[in-house]
From TrEMBL:
Residues 119-313 form the ATP-grasp domain. The keyword ATP-binding applies. Keywords: ATP-binding, Nucleotide-binding. One of its GO terms (molecular function) is ATP binding. Pfam families: ATPgrasp_Ter (PF15632), PylC-like_N (PF21360). This is ATP-grasp domain-containing protein. InterPro entries: ATP-grasp, NAD(P)-bd_dom_sf, PylC_N. It comes from the Bacteria.
Amino acid sequence: MSTINVLVTGIGGPIAQGLIQGLKKRQDVTVIGVDRRTVTAGHQFCDRTYQVPRYTNVEAYLDRLKEIIEKEGIDVIFPSLHEEVNIFHENRDALKPLIALPTSSDFDVLMHKEHVYQKLESMGHGKYIPKYQGFNTEEELKEINSSLFADDSHFVVKTVDSYASLGFAILTSKENYLDALKNGKKHTIDFEDYCKIIDPSERKLAMELINGQEYSIDVYLHRGKVVVAVPRERTGVSNNIVLDGIVVNHEDLIQASKDITESLVEDGFINIQFMESDTGYKLTDINPRFCGSQVMSLGANVNFPSLFIEYLHLGNEVPVEPVWNTRMLRFRDQIFVHED
């Protein structure tokens, strides 16, 4: 059995550590971890580790990675940081190993929420798109507020390239804002106050507020067709980390995931998120990378990092069957490192 050398970035974070859990299920994988820090919890789960420059210094970061790739004979790279997705996408050809990001003829669209919505609408998938409009300026947002959301007491704003809850806010009246503040709802902001801090150079999205059940769907595609889609009900979330959730066999969400992802991706893993509204399931986010809570699918017998290796590195089209109704409960744990 030949060894597959896999490099995982950002091993101090939860996404990398979830990836490593899946990779370590294989007997033929050696995990090489990299991080800008010399000691993290993730170091303890890798076979070998290296310190690298911060991704913001792109040239130095790539140069160091190339040294490690050559030294370790890396076959596959699993990026774990959202901020480095474009770096790896733009350097797919310059780097020898496979890059564990989805392949798409419109990859840039996947990184831009407004453009994703526009493309899906043009392909006939408007039923999955929430009420939305892009803006740059205070004047544009005020027009959106008085027209698109005239009958709504609250609506959402986010940057078009944000991830997790960065740049996310719920806009409302001063009265509603004070009530939210009293009740500890930190993302709710007074509309007029928000208008004063708008940066016109930053494209943003205004979107209807949906209060229904939230779902996250992990999807693996091969040659433009879904191999497996795993809907996950997010029942307990803290600081955007899922602490309690269950894998559900939800036919409508699986079909919605197929409609959307087969319109956008040829091969690889992608994560999409929905909220349940009065008019159906609405797409609220798309992550063209491995996400932190995909480890929930691992517990349901779907090892997405391993699927990537099987399909795109080894060329094996392996069958996969989720164990539905698997529930994940997260808890805090710790490791101890004795330093000289």
